[in-house]
Structure formats: C-alpha cells, structure tokens
Design a protein that fits this description.
single chain; 108 residues; mainly alpha; 0% strand
C-alpha cells in the first residue's frame, strides 16, 4: 500500500500516502486521550487525524483530478487535528501545573 508507485499519480501523491500511514498510527495512539477523565482534547485530535489519514488511504482515487478534493479534505481534517493537539498541550500543561501546585501545598 505504501510503497506502490502508481504511475497515474504524481510523486507527491504517492509520498502523501506514505505519510498518511504514520499520521494514522499516531492518531490511533492519540485516541488514548479519551481514557484520561476530563482531558479529552488529545482523543478528539486523534479522531480527526485518523479520519483525515483515512481519506487519503481509502478514498483518494487514482489520477490528479479525482484525488484533489480528497487531499483538500484531508488537509482540513489534519490541520484541525493539529490545532486541537496544540490546545491539548496547553490544557495538559495547565493540568500538570495545577497538580504540582496542589501536591506542593500538601507537603508544607
């Protein structure tokens, strides 16, 4: 799937399919964020990343005209996933700082 060089596709499209596999793997790992109560931002970003990479892997056709719209949709989904992951980093840092502060106050 990754290493097939479809002659009907541009080289960039073939490379995009390879990158989409890595995005899907990290998206699935990021979905573990749903296991942390109250910190679901990482899981939401993971779902967006999985859907965006699935569009590339499953729904993009062969040739430039049929895959252009699916690549734009994947760009929007993975871009949204990146923004949500950035928000998740901020939320996780705030959670960590509050936890350290609460534990530090109990030690005094």
């Amino acid at each position: 799937m990754c290493c097939n060089n479809d002659p009907n596709n541009l080289p960039e499209v073939n490379k995009t399919r390879c990158v989409a596999i890595a995005v899907m793997v990290f998206g699935v790992i990021s979905c573990l964020g749903f296991l942390v109560p109250g910190l679901w931002w990482g899981g939401l970003g993971g779902i967006l990343a999985v859907v965006g990479s699935s569009v590339i892997l499953c729904c993009s056709g062969s040739g430039a005209s049929s895959s252009a719209s699916s690549h734009m949709a994947a760009c929007a989904l993975t871009g949204s996933a990146a923004i949500v992951h950035a928000v998740a980093v901020i939320v996780y840092i705030m959670f960590w700082a509050n936890t350290v502060k609460a534990v530090g106050d109990d030690c005094d």
